Every structure is written in C-alpha cells, then in structure tokens.
C-alpha cells in the first residue's frame, strides 16, 4: 500500500464519522473524474435518489487475442503497450495469464476457452455466451479501434471482431 493510501485509511479510521464520510465522498468523486458519488445527495434534509449518469471510459484500442500461448501473449502486450497508453487499452483474451496485464497496467477481459466452458457448462451455448460477453464490453467501454491477434477460426468470433468471413463460409452461406 502506498503512503498516500495508508494516510487516507488512517484518516478515515480516526476522524469523526461526519468528516470521514466527507473525505471518502471527496476522494471517490475526484478519483472517478466527477462521474461517481459515494453517497446520495442530501437536499434540505431529504435524500436525492436520482441516478448518477455513468460515462463509459474512452478506450483507444481493444485487442482481441485468441488462442495464443502465454509467450505470444506477452509479446502482444509488450507491442501494444509500446504504442498506447495502458489506461486506453483493453485486451480480450481466452488466456488466464492475468499477471501479464497487471504488470502492464492495462485492462483485461477474460473469456474462457470453448473447451473449459463446455466442460463446466455442457448444456449452455458457448457462442451465445461469447456474443453476450463481447456485447457487454461495448456497453462498458467506448472504443475506437479493434485489433485481432491470433487465429479467429470460429465464425462467431470473427463476426464480433469485425473481421471478414473466410471464403469457405461465404460459399456455404
């Protein structure tokens, strides 16, 4: 824990309840860039229960890295972070090598591979799950560009990533 965070928690524990609440509210509001409030507003003794508008963070680059080994994924993360700010990058991968993304300080969205999903949920539709997961990313982030790393042989994943369908699929469709 860094010294600023340690001092914050020391103050929250030792200040009177009213001041500690005000400190927490201020820190949360400032850290979120003015998008979040810790507590509902009070107006003339009444609590305002109106919704707080959520503005999704602007993401410059979404990288879909599918079917890569950990070494290849480490190379992708290094290349991406060399050209982009880590706070503006989201990597969507089916690898559970989370330590690569913590070290680089970029956002990471894990989608389990098909074999793991089907072993745990044999009656569920994997394609529907992946479609829902990628659609939810569109609601959570505002992103400008999608880049694909690895081999997206699955037609659903190719379509969600915006990649053109291979010629074999075009001929059968």
Describe this protein's structure:
With 173 residues, the chain is α/β, with parallel strands linked by helices. It has two domains: 3-48, no CATH class; 58-161, Nucleotide-binding domain of ferredoxin-NADP reductase (FNR) module (Rossmann fold, 3-Layer(aba) Sandwich), CATH 3.40.50. 47% of the residues lie in helices and 19% in strands. The chain has eight helices and six strands; from the N terminus they run ααβββαβαβααβαα. It has helices at 3-14, 17-31, 70-83, 99-104, 114-120, 126-140, 155-161, 167-172; strands spanning 41-43, 46-48, 58-66, 89-93, 107-110, 142-150. The protein has a four-stranded parallel sheet with strand order 5-4-3-6, sandwiched between helices. A two-stranded antiparallel ribbon has the order 1-2. Helix 4 links the parallel strand 4 (89-93) and strand 5 (107-110). The longest helix has 15 residues, at 17-31. The chain is elongated, with a radius of gyration of 21 Å. The chain starts with a helix and ends with a helix. Residues 167-173 have low confidence and may be disordered.
The best one-word shape is: elongated
Average pLDDT metric: 76
Low-confidence stretches: 167-173
What is the H/E string? Answer: HHEEEHEHEHHEHH
Tally the beta strands. 6
List the domain count as a whole number.
2
* Structural class determined from secondary elements: alpha/beta
Helix content: 40-55%
Classify the fold: give the CATH topology of the largest domain.
Rossmann fold
CATH class of the largest domain: Alpha Beta
- Write the CATH homologous superfamily of the largest domain: Nucleotide-binding domain of ferredoxin-NADP reductase (FNR) module
Span of the ends, CA to CA: 56 Å
* Number of contiguous helices: 8
